[in-house]
């Protein structure tokens, strides 16, 4: 499940807090206001479509869909593929905290496990732990990795890694 909070300032200057909830990858986003489901949205063939609800202003819909699109969990699969283009076949977003990765045929899977485990925390930008389930090309071998994002603090002589 993925849950986002979106603040929107309406016409009368009153801010409203919308909860945007998606129960699984590929499912529609539910729009909740004050604990009440008021509609749902889905991205179909690259374009957003309102599936239910009424009375949404164009500004509200544009704001919500733009907010969802710019979330980091949407761009992490492409970053992983571009970081290891000769090793990774596909990255599947399951939720903002879970990804499935399928490797290409003919690679050293154990070597990739060492490389991936060491470097993927440096790619993470959100503050939470992310679970990666990684499979070789034919799903005969796999490993799981719970990765925490790296956090650095400024020291007088440079940057120092901080463990959370």
Describe, in plain words, how this protein is organized in 3D.
The structure is a single chain. With 164 residues, the protein is α+β, with helices and mostly antiparallel strands. It has 2 domains: 2-70, no CATH class; 73-152, Alpha-Beta Plaits (2-Layer Sandwich), CATH 3.30.70. The chain contains 3 helices and 11 strands. The model has no long low-confidence stretch (mean pLDDT 86).
Short description:
The chain has about 160 residues and is α+β, with helices and mostly antiparallel strands. About 20% of the residues lie in helices and about 45% in strands.
Task: Break the fold down into its secondary structure elements and pairings.
Blueprint (H helix, E strand, L loop, with lengths): L1 E8 L5 E8 L6 E5 L2 E9 L2 E6 L5 H12 L2 H12 L4 E8 L2 E6 L5 H11 L10 E6 L6 E6 L3 E5 L2 E5 L2
Parallel strand pairs: 7-8
Antiparallel strand pairs: 1-2, 2-3, 3-4, 4-5, 6-7, 8-9, 10-11
Order of helices and strands: EEEEEHHEEHEEEE
Range of strand content = 35-45%
Contiguous runs where pLDDT drops below 50 for at least 5 residues: none
Question: In the CATH classification, which architecture of the largest domain applies?
Answer: 2-Layer Sandwich
Q: What is the mean pLDDT?
A: 86
- Indicate how many domains the architecture comprises: 2
At the third CATH level, what is the topology name of the largest domain? Alpha-Beta Plaits
Query: What is the terminal separation in angstroms?
Result: 23 Å
What radius of gyration results from the CA coordinates?
19 Å
- Strand order across the largest sheet: 1-2-3-4-5
Number of strands: 11
- Number of helical regions: 3
What percent of the residues sit in helical stretches (DSSP H or I)?
10-25%
Q: Return the structural class.
A: alpha+beta
Shape: elongated
């Amino acid at each position: 499940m993925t849950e986002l909070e979106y603040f929107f300032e309406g016409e009368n200057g009153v801010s409203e807090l919308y909860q945007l909830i998606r129960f699984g990858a590929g499912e529609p986003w539910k729009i909740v206001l004050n604990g009440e489901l008021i509609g749902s949205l889905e991205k179909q063939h690259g374009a957003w479509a309102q599936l239910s609800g009424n009375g949404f202003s164009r500004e509200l819909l544009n704001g919500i869909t733009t907010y969802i699109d710019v979330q980091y969990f949407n761009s992490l699969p492409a970053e992983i593929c571009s970081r290891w283009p000769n090793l990774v076949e596909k990255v599947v977003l399951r939720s903002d905290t879970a990804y499935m990765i399928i490797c290409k045929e003919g690679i050293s899977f154990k070597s990739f496990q060492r490389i991936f485990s060491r470097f993927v925390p440096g790619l993470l930008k959100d503050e939470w732990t992310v679970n990666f389930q990684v499979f070789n090309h034919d799903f005969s071998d796999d490993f799981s990795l719970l990765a925490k994002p790296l956090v650095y603090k400024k020291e007088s002589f440079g940057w120092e890694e901080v463990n959370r």
